[in-house]
Amino acid sequence: MPAPKKFWTDHEDRTIRRLEEIRQSLAMSMREMAEALDIPFRTYQKWVYSRQRPRHREEMIVRAEAMVAPRRINCWEYLRCGREPGGDDVGPDGPCPAAIGRHGEGVNSGVRSGRICWAVSGTFCGTRTQGTEASKIISCLNCGFFTRVLREEGLANFKLLRPGQSYTQE
Predict the structure, then answer these.
(1) pLDDT tens sequence for the chain (170 residues)
(2) Which of 17, 41, 69, 136 might form a disulfide with 34, Cβ 3.0–4.6 angstroms?
(3) CA atoms within 13 A on the CB side of 32
């Protein structure tokens, strides 16, 4: 009978080492960790027990770090708009882009783009769909949620734009 596989505490990939540290600190099984990272269980196992590495390392670390960070609410929770996936007010246009967009995952300690909604075009704020990032940024600067995120993150950590995004005025 083969010996059970063990996690390499000196795994050559620092991402895997950090993911496993977080998993163990949260007392999660590998299956639970994989589900929390939104990846297949077998993929997570391959990362840990073989030399296979995640393609999107930084994204995996951001997601995992968010699990141990203090819980911060996202825009759909603050505004109680009901436009998150499965929400009460998801209409024919579907859920709000901030609630489903992954480009802002982990930014400002948020889930998906939930704490950088001002940098997402087509969000549903108030009673209507907002336009491009450039055209809506002024109204967002006056939003109570924007102010809250800025306060919670602090000037040193606050992100006004998503990774790779630049601001151009129309």
Answers:
(1) 555 555 545 677 888 888 999 998 888 899 999 988 888 999 999 888 887 788 878 888 877 887 777 778 999 999 888 888 888 888 777 888 899 988 888 888 888 889 999 888 888 776 566 655 555 667 788 888 999 999 888 888 888 888 777 766 55
(2) 41
(3) 10
Token pair 């141990």 is at which residue? 68
Q: Quick count: other Cβ atoms within 10 Å of Cβ 55? A: 7
DSSP string of the chain?
Answer: -PPPP---TT-S-HHHHHHHHHHHHTT--HHHHHHHHTS-HHHHHHHHHSS---SSHHHHHHHHHHHHSPP---HHHHHT-S-STT-TT-BTTBS-HHHH--TTTTGGG-STTTT-GGGSTT-EETTEE---HHHHHHHHHT-HHHHHHHHHH-TTT--SS-TT------
